[in-house]
Structures are given as structure tokens and as C-alpha cells.
Amino acid sequence: MTKIALFASGSGTNVENIINYFNKNNSENIFTIFTNNNNAFVIKRAEKLNNKVIIFNKTELNDGTVNKILKNLHIDFIVLAGFLLLVPKNIVSDFKRKIINVHPALLPKYGGKGMYGMNVHNAVFNNKEKETGITIHYVNEVYDDGDVIFQAKCKLTKDDTPNTIAEKIHVLEQEYFPQIIEKTISIL
Fold it and tell me: Which residues pair with 5 in a beta bridge?
């Protein structure tokens, strides 16, 4: 049994998909949802799925409070699923190669601070890219800089818009992110 912390800042579609994937596969993993946004829809999703939610602020993330909670819960693995804050060094060092993130582009392109969600899709569109995709990577102290675990690509056409690009990326995230989490925790 692996205790997994799912960090999210927004609606939580990836969080819900991950939990449903593991439940469908009769997994005995225990999920705790962590969010820095007390208005995030991920809270309602977590309640519907009967998962514990921890709400914290940026100060608590950076001053060691969140790390202490992770340790008290005996968390084994952390998944960033739409989490927008930089994970501080104290957590990264205590969970070395046990934190992964999904990024909505093919890193190293379109990564870094401020490059999330529609910001990424608009940049991909404005640069007239022929393909894009997702990158699942280990987390270190720098935004979108950790070792790549997996990438999946999709073709873009002249008819694509930032919104259709977002839809294509969402399909890739929903398909591959839970599978890669499962494979990654299996080697813990």
C-alpha cells in the first residue's frame, strides 16, 4: 500500500481521474489531496470520492508546515496534478525522486514559471508548432526542470486553436498520467 499525496490548485480533473484509475484497478493506495486554494473545485471532487483534503497557504508550504504534515501522514509519493506553486527545497530533498508532475508541453519547450494551462497552449499556438504533448517528470527545485520520465505527443493542424490544443493535451493527460504514476510507484 502506497500513501500518495495529490497536489492541485484548481478544478482537479486529473486528481479525480487518477483516483478513479487506481480504484478501478483495485489498488490499495491511499490518497490525500493537498491544495493551496480553499476555493478550488478539487475539494468538492475529493469529498465526492471520500478522500481527505489538506488546505494550506504559501507560507505553510515554504515554512516546513506542509512537509511536517506529509511526514506525519507517512506519505510515500507526491503527484503534482495542476499544482501551480514551486515545491520548496525542504520537500524536494525529503522526497527525492518521489515527486512527479505533468506538464502540458514537450519540455524543455514552454516550461518555467508562469508556463501552465492556457499560457502554454497560447504560446504553442502563437509559435505555430506542428506538434505538442505532455511531459511527466520528476520535480526538483526549479519549475519544470526535473528528469523526464515520459512524453506523449500529438500533431497540430492549421485549424487548431489554443482551446483545441488544450483539449488534445487533456486527452493525453487523462490517458497517460495515471499509468505513469502506477509504473513509477512500482519501482519505489
Answer: 32, 78
**In the annotation, is 103 catalytic?**
yes
CA distance 33 to 79: 10
DSSP element (H, E) containing 133: strand 131-138
Cell numbers for 130, please give them: 506542428
The angle subtended at Cα 57 by Cα 53 and Cα 60, nearest 5°, is: 100
Rounded to 10°, the helix 13-24/162-185 angle is: 40
* CATH placement of domain 3-185: 3.40.50.170
Supply the pTM of this predicted model.
Answer: 0.96
- Report, as ranges of residue numbers, the positions in the chain whose pLDDT lies below 50: none
Task: Map out the domains of the chain as residue ranges.
Answer: 3-185
Main-chain dihedrals φ then ψ at residue 153, nearest 5 degrees: -115, 155
| Closest of 151, 134, 181, 168 to residue 20, by C-alpha | 181
- Active-site choice (74, 103, 137, 170): 103
| Residue 27: predicted pLDDT | 79
DSSP per position, 65-128: HHHHHHHHTT--EEEESS--SPPPHHHHHHTTT-EEEEESS-TTTT-STT--HHHHHHHHHHTT
Q: Tell me the angle at which helices 162-185 and 117-126 cross, rounded to the nearest 10 degrees.
A: 120
Question: Residue 146: what pLDDT?
Answer: 96
Cell numbers of 107, please? 519540455
